[in-house]
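Give me structure tokens for this 321-residue protein.
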Amino acid sequence: MANNSSSNSSSVASRPRHILQLSTEEKRRFVDSFDRVFTDIDGVIFTLQHNVPHAPDGFAALQKAGKPITYVTNNSARAVESTVRSFAQVGMEVQKEQIWHPAQSIVHYLRSINFDGLIYIIASPKFKQVLHDAGFQMIDGPNHLIEDTYSDLAKHIFDKSPVRAVVIDVDFNLTSTKLLRAHLYLRHPDCLLLTGATDRLLPVAKDINIIGPGPFASILVEASGKEPTMLGKPGRPLGDMLIEHHKVSDPKRVLMIGDMLAQDVKFGRMCGFQTLLVLTGGCTLEQLEAETSPDLVPDYYADSAADLAKLFETLAPKAHV
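Here you go.
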């Protein structure tokens, strides 16, 4: 079905439009159709290998146009303070309050339900530190190799600690023992299962992906039969928190920018936001063109976030000589 070119561009077109290939009037309607921006970071502004050229110019143009920006990342292995420094290195002044990552979202959620129980956590040290600093009680491990015997395994997975929440995110030292222990805690009917990042694949270099935390979280979901509360993208609970925190009255007037179809675009679609995919990270133009699921096809795409600066330049009043 063709896109209805009404007062905004939130309806789903049969295929996404490149923002620089819109007509001047369509560009104006696009810019006027959103009041706030949520955006991913990795793959949009910088990657593990390099900074995205001129991407900061695109976000500077959004800020100049009066569009508040919130940076929503699944990368909680990097502390907020470190992320702020990374922004500064590319010339962007971003306050830590503008950054949301799964550890912060989990803290926000646990406080919202007045949780005061014990947590078993599978995550990075920096992730754990966020929960520790927020005052939550946690246990983890084992963090060493165990003997290849069932008796030693039993000593490390059977535990009578009153765990009432299992949290799983990225853990570079994940073991089957940790998953077995988490599964046993989840047998308790009141034990919550909270997931942070659920990326099934993580792009780490050009044309190179590694397994993300998603498949490991899925093991616990399948084994326990519990419905997880997803507090990373594309979890709807995260979207609900963002909408409430920023007092968003009309989700269609939010633009979600990202580089991943399954995380960023799906998250935006699920929450009712408009979506813009940039081709500087986890998705190529060929992959975008091959995608057919309405949940994963963005409203718009761009070669880079830098294209946003070019778009605003085309709409700027021409100086008279």
